[in-house]
């Protein structure tokens, strides 16, 4: 995702959906961005807030973490210049993803971008994140629906707890 961020710098403020323990939000903040991270897991938000306490003051000032339902970011009643989603979209079935896309569309400022980083592999066990395909993204994010795909890349999803897996990374602009 770092290559997409460099190629298409995000506009502020930024929302990190399903931020977990805050690593991506902290990275974005260190780049000088104003970032809000949301997750429904209270313990993950506590860990993220603890990390903020160890950061330089100017970085910490640009970070906010809160417990919230990342499936309904419109409840924040804020508009964002960019929305980041690393490993959240792929947790839902396609119908639920349509609802999530509508939610993201409602909070993005015009020409704001939705940055996705999702699994591009189907796992042979139930109840794990599903595969997100290039075709799916090209169908869900069309000009007719108010989106423009700026870039899609096949990459790897890196994790601290598992080996890298094939992934898809995209920067999609709200028209």
Automatic annotation (TrEMBL):
Q: In which domain of life is the source organism classified? A: Archaea
Per the record, the GO terms for biological process are: methylation
Check the record and name the InterPro entries matching this protein: Methyltransf_25, SAM-dependent_MTases_sf
Question: Which one Pfam family would you cite for this protein?
Answer: Methyltransf_25
Q: Which CDD domains match?
A: AdoMet_MTases
Kindly indicate where the leader peptide sits in this chain.
Answer: none
Q: Which residues form a coiled coil?
A: none
**What SUPFAM superfamilies does UniProt report for this protein, alphabetically?**
S-adenosyl-L-methionine-dependent methyltransferases
Molecular function terms in GO for this entry?
methyltransferase activity
The Methyltransferase domain is annotated at: 14-112
- Keyword field contains Methyltransferase: yes
Keyword presence, Transferase: yes
Keyword annotations for this protein, in alphabetical order, are: Methyltransferase, S-adenosyl-L-methionine, Transferase
| UniProt xrefs under PANTHER family | METHYLTRANSFERASE, UBIQUINONE BIOSYNTHESIS O-METHYLTRANSFERASE, MITOCHONDRIAL
Name of the protein in its database record: Methyltransferase domain-containing protein
Provenance organism = Methanospirillum purgamenti
Top-level taxonomy:
Archaea, Methanobacteriati, Methanobacteriota, Stenosarchaea group, Methanomicrobia
């Amino acid at each position: 995702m770092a290559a997409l961020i460099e190629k298409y710098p995000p506009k502020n403020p930024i929302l990190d959906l399903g931020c977990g323990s805050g690593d991506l939000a902290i990275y974005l903040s260190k780049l000088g961005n104003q970032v809000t991270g949301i997750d429904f897991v209270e313990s993950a938000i506590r860990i993220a807030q603890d990390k903020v306490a160890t950061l330089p003051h100017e970085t910490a000032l640009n970070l906010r973490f809160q417990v919230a339902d990342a499936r309904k970011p419109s409840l924040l009643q804020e508009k964002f210049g960019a929305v980041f989603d690393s490993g959240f979209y792929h947790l839902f079935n396609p119908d639920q993803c349509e609802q999530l896309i509508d939610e993201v569309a409602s909070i993005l400022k015009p020409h704001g971008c939705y940055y996705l980083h999702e699994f591009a592999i189907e796992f042979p066990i139930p109840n794990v994140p599903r595969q997100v395909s290039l075709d799916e993204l090209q169908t869900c994010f069309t000009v007719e629906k108010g989106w423009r795909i700026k870039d899609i890349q096949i990459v790897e999803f890196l994790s601290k707890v598992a080996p890298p897996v094939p992934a898809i990374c995209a920067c999609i602009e709200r028209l």
